[in-house]
Amino acid sequence: MLIRVGSRGSRLALTQAELAVAGLRRPGIEIALVPMTTAGDRDRTKPFGEIGERGVFVKELEEALIAGRIDVAVHSAKDMTSTAVEGLAVGAYPPRDDPRDALCGASEVRPNMRIGTASVRRRAQLLALEPTLSIEPLRGNVDTRLRKRRERGLDAIVLAACGLERLGLEGEIGHRFEVEELLPEAGQGALALQVREGEEELVAALDDAETRVRVEAERACVARVGGGCLAPVAAHHDGSRLTALVADPDGAWIEKRSGDADAVAAELAPFLRPA
What we know:
Elements lengths: L1 E7 L2 H11 L8 E7 L2 H4 L5 H4 L7 H9 L4 E5 L11 E5 L8 E4 L9 E3 L3 H10 L4 E3 L5 H10 L4 E5 H6 L6 E4 L14 E6 L12 H17 L7 E5 L4 E6 L6 E6 L1 H8 L7
Parallel strand pairs: 1-2, 1-3, 6-7, 6-8
Antiparallel strand pairs: 3-10, 4-10, 5-8, 5-9, 11-12, 12-13
Helix pairs in contact: 8-9
């Protein structure tokens, strides 16, 4: 039996896909990785919000699943849209890795630093921590962003800790932000194995129940709050409660709530609606 596994073509994405489906390999099962290019990969200069809303790294993979060109799509759960796609389902969330953000190039945030990130969520929270920072846009894969930090003389950049670890680049991490400092994006640290509805058993053995509960609560909260790539929105479930926030893009204000996902979303959603 051949299982065609679709993934973005970056080194990190292919590494993650190989890690995610390793548990499917057994006698009689052949795995074929199918690299694909997404809208987010083709345009590496514009901010994410100008390319499209949340989902710019997953749409082509989902279309390939629906068309039957692949059997499993491996996504970073944080890249997925917060609402379900008709005809598709997440068949498995493997155990989650470190969901925290990492500061690369420095061991702490100091006044007047130049920090690179393309994330509006990270920008807002960094400026709330230290208003004198200069936040500079930075796109590209992990290796590219690490290289650009040095080329542009940036003091630091912020990346997901899990991605650096998966690539064996944890030595680049100078500081891991606790979730109380920088609340992670919904699903950060988790992978999602998406399949066609009715074919969940293809990957069900890889599903981690605790990761599923946490990530789906985070995604549901973000879906109700709205914003996606266009506004600073974050959500993280620690196993006992969910914490979420919305913020001003320049960090002038942050509204954060903790508790039940539906209640938290209901309290935060009005802050993103025009007065």
